[in-house]
Amino acid sequence: MAIGKLLRYALGGQGLRQAVALIRHRLGRTYDVVFAAGSQVDLQWVIPAYAAARARGLACALAGPDLVTSQAGEYINVPARLFRFLRTRAIVTATSGLKAEHMPRQATHRIAIPHSLVSLHMVYPAGTFDPYTDIFCCGTHHVAEVEAMNQLAGRRDRRPILIGYGKAERLLETRPGHGVSNDGRKHVLIGPSWGKGNIIETMGEPLIARLIAEGYRVTLRPHPSFFIAGDALLAPLVERWQGHEAFTLENSVEESRAIWTADMMIADYSGFAMEFAFIRERPVLYIDVASKVLNPDWKAVGTVPIELAIRDRIGIVVGAQIDLVIDGLRNLSQRDTEWPGRIRDEREAAWANFGHFGDTCAAELSRMLAKSA
Q: 338, 364, 360, 362: which is closest to 351 by C-alpha?
């Protein structure tokens, strides 16, 4: 494409700096793999694979708009709408919402890394994974979902490949130096999902008040969209409790400290609840609010979403009433010794290659590229 047209595309959005970055890239070499992130939040899911692929000798680059990273190697500062101009044999991304027109024209491998352990067919809008040739599945549930979606759509050109999930490696790298507090109080992590009917909307302020009155330490860690998109319910709640010695607000865009220090978690349908359970081998108390549905036709796929099926296997489910939540937390504490073994059994299927996502992903990329050379 002519440089003038590239400039018009780039200058229509983010400015000269990104135009120059893209022109330099277009004048340079073709990469084996570009790991692309549409935002800073999405970057964390591809970093383990990027680092492992570079270690294997693959020609790699990171790409995305104004990303901040400490990773060595090459970085192309471009917005997602210009990913189509990237010169690469393969693109790997955890950014949802990309369309076919965003995919690099030269890329024969277009690979999606799900950015959550939750289902692909209920929590994501229909068509989210249509532009891809391969889905690097977190667990066997994702493999079954992709196979069912392929059958429903009559597709044979999209492969589910069991790879794993990169969040464990990133969390281990950023693990805080201190461990669980020994002040005698149980520490409860509240992790609301994003969307209508979540915990904050349903019972946020009275729940926090009751937990603190019962002697718990509370960390509220809302979904990143609460911070990125803003939420009218969050600000007054934080204003009420900010500064209380038993309350902490954790910005899920910037940190993940409470996953290492909490004794138990309260959630609705967030994928982070499964991450907490599988990494810490500790239980989750699920509040039975309305499920998170972004694809109203999800039942046509024919598989039960894991965020519905797994709740009573890695924790317990209670109704959206404060007394039931308090009783549920006591129940979890009384059964403390039974959870690690049960949760490890569930992790075997839901989170493949636990702790080895980067190496597994890089090995598969090497195999794919060698086969198509």
A: 360
Q: Is 314 helix (H, G, I), strand (E, B) or coil?
A: coil
Q: List Cβ neighbours of 24 (8 Å cut-off, separation of 6 or more).
A: none
- Segment 57-98, tens digit of pLDDT: 999 999 999 998 888 889 999 999 999 999 999 999 999 999
What pTM, to 2 d.p., does this model score?
0.88
Mean pLDDT value across residues 237-250: 84
Give me 316's structure tokens: 């317990």
Could you give the 3-state DSSP secondary structure of residue 38?
Answer: coil
Location of structure tokens 């009218």: 232
CB-CB contact of 221 with 187 (8 Å): no
Residue 178 is predicted with a pLDDT of 56
The neighbouring-strand residues paired with 110 are: 91
Distance of CA 91 to CAs 51, 104, 360, Å? 15, 7, 16
Give Cβ neighbours of residue 297 (< 8 Å, ≥ 6 apart): 126
Q: How far apart are CA 213 and CA 211, in angstroms?
A: 5
